[in-house]
Amino acid sequence: MASSCGLLLLLAAGGFVSISDGRFVDEECAEFHFHGWNGWRVVDAALNQPASLTRRFKDAQEAGLNVLRFFLGDDERSPVLQTAPGVFDERVAQAVDFVLAESAAHSIKLTPVLLNLWKRNNGVPQFEEWCGTASTSRQPRPGGGSLDAQERLQTPYDWLVSPKCRDQVKKYFTTLVNRRNTITGVLYKDDPTIMSWNLLNEPRCRSCGPEAVDSWIGEMAGHLKSVDPNHLITTGAEGFFDESDPMARYNPQDRSLWASRTGQHFRANHAHAAISYATVHTWPDNWRNPPFPTSWGRQWLDAHSQVFKPKIVRVWL
């Protein structure tokens, strides 16, 4: 949602974060400054140790933090939200209700991560099993070679392009945003506690070219915006430039050009009308791009100013 503040004052529901003139703004059109953090095993804590989650929110509020990004499924030890596409385990869904209610009680906004490339729990591997693409290893471009397990995890090509698989994700999104919180009575799509939705943590399609990931992002973001027009949406991408983009010279990579061939295309991925703001991840330990923290790090972040939407550095590890 991007507009002038005058129009936003007429349209905004109480408490929703919006975008005006390239800035995050609150319901009064005052600039929304946030200090956020990534939370792990949040739903697990809500289900099994709710008092500890309440303390976590209290501590965060006292420390001046006001936005939490969290996964609806962390790892295989965490509670599993979905038993089938768009079919929730009610006990786990009520734990998510608790996360939203406690977050609101402590004036903290949320960005739930809807899907995760890397984990089966509420992630792409689980959806591949449901859709029947888990056993395929197709790459549309030659030269990718055979795939080991880690490489295959990063190459869900058939899943990304399949209409059936996309429809399963749409069903999940639609069910989630239309859920009524059992504690607050508010539909998720009407809850201003949610700042934004994160479509897919670190989408990739190794040696696929940029079309598969970009098409998926555009269609999924468009669907989500159609069933929930109130909330901001972002991609969850690391911010890699495709090898066809002159900006690819800023990617963290060696001679293998791995970052330019992840399937991400930063400028195209964030140009979709339903994508509200851009995300950038920075992993100095994993990427090992010397000399990291100063010279390259500044260039990496500055390079992303080419997209004229607000940007958030989501991960810095």
Provide the fold topology:
Elements: H1 5-11, E1 18-20, E2 23-25, E3 36-39, H2 42-48, H3 50-62, E4 67-71, E5 82-84, E6 87-88, H4 90-105, E7 109-113, H5 124-131, H6 149-153, H7 157-161, H8 163-177, E8 196-198, H9 211-227, E9 232-234, H10 266-269, E10 278-282, H11 284-287, H12 292-303, E11 311-316
Parallel strand pairs: 3-4, 4-7, 8-9, 10-11
Antiparallel strand pairs: 1-2, 5-6
Helix pairs in contact: 2-3, 2-4, 3-4, 5-8, 8-9
Catalytic activity: Random hydrolysis of (1->4)-beta-D-mannosidic linkages in mannans, galactomannans and glucomannans
GO molecular function, one term: mannan endo-1,4-beta-mannosidase activity
InterPro entries: GH (IPR017853), Glyco_hydro_5 (IPR001547), MAN-like (IPR045053)
CATH topology of the largest domain: TIM Barrel
- Element order: H for helix, E for strand: HEEEHHEEEHEHHHHEHEHEHHE
Based on Cα principal axes, name the global outline: globular
Q: In total, how many domains does the architecture comprise?
A: 2
Name of the CATH homologous superfamily of the largest domain: Glycosidases
CATH architecture of the largest domain: Alpha-Beta Barrel
Structural class comes to alpha/beta
What can be said about the biggest beta sheet? 3 strands, parallel
Rg, rounded, reads: 19 Å
Which stretches are poorly predicted, pLDDT < 50 over at least 5 residues? 7-13
Span between N and C termini? 30 Å
Averaged pLDDT: 90
**Based on DSSP secondary structure assignment, what is the total number of beta strands?**
11
CATH class designation of the largest domain = Alpha Beta
Helix content: 25-40%
Strand numbers in spatial order across the main sheet? 3-4-7
EC number: 3.2.1.78
Main location: secreted
Catalytic activity: Random hydrolysis of (1->4)-beta-D-mannosidic linkages in mannans, galactomannans and glucomannans
InterPro entries: GH, Glyco_hydro_5, MAN-like
